[in-house]
């Protein structure tokens, strides 16, 4: 199905489909499905599908099935992720041997073994391995594993310390992925750092998108007023529209109006929240407030900086000198995305 629909061009999407397909089929006949899979032709998609299945076997505790599939893979097609998947599947001693046998270690394999050490309380070994990990391979996932490993083992004041920028990167990734990780945010204090506006913004954004509006509002109330800004408060107000939080929207709008009393966008967004939940009296009050303060709705626009020059685009605007080329590129992108 995956190859037939050209999804092999999009490995992340295909991998997610492979996971779902494997889970559904292996729930009925895990061994048969693994055997039938091995009849597929050797290719790059074969490799990552094998890796997905090894991971699934490991998570289900079927280590022998994982090992069997790994052993039957042609050696030339095994990559760093194949070994990392086996590291995840095995208990620590065997995982260490596999890791030491690897020629090409990627971020996944390093992080898998680090996580294994922290999981059984071997914090010093996990710390040493993290310090040995090449800086070029350290990413959001590896730093998150390290930070939470220390926090969960009660040793947050020891070892290598992430800085404020590291926490911004980690929290931003959690925000984009929709991961609600309070423990990670709380560990900022434990590492002797003070949360900045960006840290709070990520935390509020995570909770808002998850529909946990009360918790998001609680974070806002605990924030120092100097760290509040219109960007993330506006995002939380938009979340109120999506998740039915018109009461919380009242509190947020008051804070926003204090920060940006002449920003018509705040009033428009609040009015839209009320309209979405058919609170027409409140909607009318907001519109009246806009008229009294002589505020007008500003046309939506986007902008991009290219070679030091700002290019601004309004909805329906065709005044840009390169408008024909821009629209042609958009058409090509549209056709490419729709192509089967």
TrEMBL record:
PPR repeats lie at residues 106-136. Pfam families: E_motif, PPR. InterPro entries: E_motif, PPR_At4g14850-like_plant, PPR_rpt, TPR-like_helical_dom_sf. It comes from the Eukaryota. Gene3D superfamilies: Tetratricopeptide repeat domain. GO terms for biological process: plant organ development; RNA modification. Keywords: Repeat. This is Pentacotripeptide-repeat region of PRORP domain-containing protein.
């Amino acid at each position: 199905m995956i190859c037939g629909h050209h999804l092999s061009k999009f490995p992340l999407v295909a991998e997610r489909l492979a996971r779902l397909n494997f889970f559904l089929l292996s729930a009925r006949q895990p061994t048969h499905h693994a055997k039938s899979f091995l009849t597929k032709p050797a290719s790059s998609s074969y490799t990552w599908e094998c890796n997905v299945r090894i991971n699934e076997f490991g998570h289900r505790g079927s280590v022998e099935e994982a090992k069997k599939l790994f052993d039957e893979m042609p050696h030339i097609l095994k990559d760093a992720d194949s070994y990392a998947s086996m590291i995840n599947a095995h208990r620590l001693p065997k995982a260490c041997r596999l890791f030491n046998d690897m020629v090409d270690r990627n971020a996944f394999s390093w992080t898998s073994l680090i996580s294994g050490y922290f999981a059984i309380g071997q914090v010093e070994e996990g710390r040493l391995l993290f310090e040995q990990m090449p800086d070029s391979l350290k990413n959001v996932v590896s730093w998150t594993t390290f930070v939470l490993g220390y926090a969960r083992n009660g040793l947050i004041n020891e070892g290598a310390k992430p800085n404020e920028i590291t926490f911004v990167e980690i929290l931003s990734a959690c925000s984009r992925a929709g991961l609600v990780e309070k423990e990670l945010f709380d560990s900022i204090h434990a590492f002797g750092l003070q949360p900045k506006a960006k840290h709070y913004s990520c935390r509020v954004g995570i909770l808002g998108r998850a529909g946990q509006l009360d918790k998001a509002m609680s974070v806002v109330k605990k924030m120092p007023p100097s760290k509040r800004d219109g960007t993330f408060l506006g995002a939380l107000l938009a979340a109120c529209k999506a998740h039915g939080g018109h009461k919380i929207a009242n509190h947020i709008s008051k804070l926003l109006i204090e920060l940006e009393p002449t920003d018509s966008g705040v009033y428009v967004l609040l009015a839209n929240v009320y309209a979405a939940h058919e609170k027409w009296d409140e909607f009318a009050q907001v519109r009246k407030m806009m008229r009294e303060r002589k505020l007008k709705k500003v046309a939506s626009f986007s902008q991009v900086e290219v070679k030091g020059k700002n290019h601004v685009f309004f909805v329906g605007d065709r005044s840009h000198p390169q408008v024909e080329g821009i629209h042609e590129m958009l058409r090509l992108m549209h056709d490419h995305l729709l192509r089967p």
